[in-house]
């Protein structure tokens, strides 16, 4: 665990240096990369550790974005609005988890997929509060220069990513993480061994929501303008799963690797194949998953999760 | 606690129109080793599922240590001291043998996460003779070893009642003898044991009392020697061949 924490700290310090390069393109890419990292790591709590394929990421992201945006519109300071967004996603995940996590496997996946659509419709129809289909403008941050803003949001996203990673590391090396592994391997056997499976799954689901909610709020502040189809985009859910599969499910660094690899692919492919880029990307993902079923980490001999537990 | 450790009062479990267990009353005192026999489909495993809360009773009640546990969830029953092994062994395949037992020690046995759970797990693995396999993946074990793992997990749960659901199925004669030794050792620790078993040899040599289920109903109970002479039992379970004087063997 110490080793993992040290590696992460070094990684974090390295990533913190990116703004020195200063170019707007790299800052934008870096911020997106960190956001993808948050999304992938968050999915790992429920999808990787507990083995429940959740499609709720888009719901949490949109909920966070709108909570943050509305809170700021009502005059809350930005930082507080972000925290509120995290809390909203946490509470929503708790309520949703208690209802949905009674379902197993495919049923849970489909139920979680619908949630984002429902939220999107709700936001669409609550025109007074959210602007509905017109979208919502956010107040511009105090910093005058575009460059300073870009750097600020880069570090804000880095903060959320570091928080997510710390939570993930702590969970993997705790009773909760151990219980989730039991559930992932054989849920009824875990139940028989005294694991309160519902409670553990809901906890994992809440962890998978809170940081995505915060990232959504940071994203909203970053881009100044959000609309329902943008933040409740089901692609967020799909990307989260693809990134974790690319990196290695259930592991500590897998989701981060996966996020970095996915964004690189997305960026490279998008530039070279403007017309058919989603098709090419899809093909690449199929190939990667076929030949690297355990993700990038199949190259590493010792998976971090296989270290001396419990 | 003065009454029996486990008491079933008129327990019925229905699946749709089928009564898998029908009006079964049974009382098991502390420290007894009791056998449950019956033909396939007699409701033996359902009875275990009713006790552990997997399929709560449709009617009647289950009492454990004087408490009504009819509606408790399986994980609650586990923490109260009811451990079970499965007819088809259920380890966590991608975890090590040690982790499997440590999970039982932690979640049901109340051991703390980390060193304590691991120490207890090692002790139980030594007891069942799996000490050398502690670091292996559970999926890599042979069937006989997996059955031993089930015993170790059961013990790690610090049970007051251990429910053994056909732990000997699929084992060869030597392995069965070893398993018998193990069960005797566990009973000697004061754990009350309820054994579901097809092998008459096992039940006859371990149990002080046998109950017989047939079509979900409890048709007879008593000492092993009187049970195997009971005509209803011979008719229902052992078959006509035994009624004509054959020696009991596994069926």
Structure description:
The complex is a heterodimer of chains A (310) and B (251). By secondary structure, chain A is mostly helical. Helices cover 75% and strands 1% of the residues of chain A. Chain A has a domain at 26-237. Chain B has 251 residues and is of the alpha/beta class. Chain B has 10 helices and 10 strands. Chain B has a 6-stranded mixed sheet with strand order 6-7-8-3-9-10, with helices on both faces. Chain B has a 4-stranded antiparallel sheet with strand order 2-1-4-5, covered by helices on one side. In chain B, β4 and β5 (67-68) form a beta hairpin. Chain B is globular, with a radius of gyration of 18 Å. The model of chain B has no long low-confidence stretch (mean pLDDT 87). Chains A and B meet through α9 and α10 of A and α2 and α3 of B.
Alpha carbon gyration radius of chain B? 18 Å
The coarse overall form of chain B would be globular
Mean pLDDT of chain B: 87
CATH topology of the largest domain in chain B: Rossmann fold
Oligomer: heterodimer
Order of helices and strands of chain A: HHHHHHHEHHHHEHHHH
- CATH superfamily of the largest domain in chain B, please? P-loop containing nucleotide triphosphate hydrolases
- Major sheet summary line of chain A: 2 strands, antiparallel
* Poorly predicted ranges of chain B: none
- State the low-pLDDT regions of chain A, or none: 301-310
Major sheet description of chain B:
6 strands, mixed
Q: What percentage of the residues of chain B does DSSP assign to strands (E)? A: 15-25%
Major sheet strand order of chain A: 1-2
């Amino acid at each position: 665990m110490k080793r993992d924490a040290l590696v992460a700290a070094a990684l974090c310090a390295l990533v913190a240096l990116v703004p020195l390069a200063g170019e707007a393109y790299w800052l934008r890419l870096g911020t997106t990369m960190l956001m993808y990292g948050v999304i992938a790591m968050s999915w790992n709590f429920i999808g990787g550790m507990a083995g429940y394929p959740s499609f709720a990421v888009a719901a949490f992201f949109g909920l966070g974005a709108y909570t943050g945006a509305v809170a700021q519109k009502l005059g809350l300071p930005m930082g507080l609005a972000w925290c509120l967004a995290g809390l909203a996603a946490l509470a929503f995940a708790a309520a949703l988890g208690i209802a949905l996590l009674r379902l197993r496997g495919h049923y849970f996946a489909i139920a979680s997929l619908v949630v984002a659509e429902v939220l999107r419709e709700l936001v669409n129809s609550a025109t007074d509060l959210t602007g509905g289909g017109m979208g919502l403008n956010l107040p511009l941050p105090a910093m005058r220069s575009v460059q300073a803003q870009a750097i600020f949001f880069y570090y804000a996203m880095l903060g959320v990513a570091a928080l997510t990673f710390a939570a993930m590391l702590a969970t993997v090396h705790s009773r909760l993480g151990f219980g989730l592994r039991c559930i992932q391997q054989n849920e009824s056997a875990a139940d028989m061994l005294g694991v309160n499976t519902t409670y553990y799954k809901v906890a994992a689901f809440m962890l998978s929501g809170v940081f995505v909610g915060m990232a959504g709020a940071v994203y909203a502040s970053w881009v100044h303008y959000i609309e329902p189809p943008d933040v409740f985009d089901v692609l967020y859910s799909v990307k989260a799963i693809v990134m974790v599969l690319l990196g290695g499910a259930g592991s500590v660094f897998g989701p981060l690797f996966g996020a970095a690899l996915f964004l690189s692919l997305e960026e490279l492919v998008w530039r070279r194949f403007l017309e058919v880029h989603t098709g090419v990307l899809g093909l690449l993902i199929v190939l990667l998953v076929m030949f690297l079923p355990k993700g990038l980490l199949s190259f590493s001999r010792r998976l971090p999760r296989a270290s001396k537990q419990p | 606690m003065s009454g029996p450790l486990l008491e079933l009062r008129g327990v019925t479990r229905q699946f749709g129109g089928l009564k898998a267990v029908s009006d079964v009353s049974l009382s098991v005192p502390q420290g007894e080793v009791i056998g449950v026999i019956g033909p396939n489909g007699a409701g033996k495993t359902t009875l275990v599922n009713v006790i552990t809360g997997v399929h709560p009773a449709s009617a009647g009640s289950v009492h454990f240590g004087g408490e009504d546990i009819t509606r408790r969830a399986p994980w609650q029953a586990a923490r109260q001291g009811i451990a079970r092994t499965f007819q088809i062994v259920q380890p966590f395949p991608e975890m090590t043998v040690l982790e499997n037992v440590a999970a039982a020690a932690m979640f049901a046995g109340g051991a703390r996460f980390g060193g304590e759970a691991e120490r207890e797990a090692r002790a139980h693995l030594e007891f069942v003779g799996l000490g050398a396999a502690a670091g292996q993946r559970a999926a890599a074990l042979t069937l006989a070893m997996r059955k031993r793992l089930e015993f170790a997990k059961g013990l790690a749960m610090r049970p007051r009642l251990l429910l053994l659901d056909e732990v000997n199925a699929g084992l060869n004669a030597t392995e069965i003898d070893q398993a018998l030794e193990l069960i005797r050792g566990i009973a000697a620790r004061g754990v009350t044991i309820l054994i579901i078993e097809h092998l008459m040899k096992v039940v006859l040599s371990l149990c002080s009392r046998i109950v017989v289920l047939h079509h979900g109903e409890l048709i007879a109970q008593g000492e092993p020697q009187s049970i195997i002479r009971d005509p209803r039992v011979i008719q229902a379970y052992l078959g006509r061949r035994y009624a004509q004087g054959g020696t009991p063997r596994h069926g």
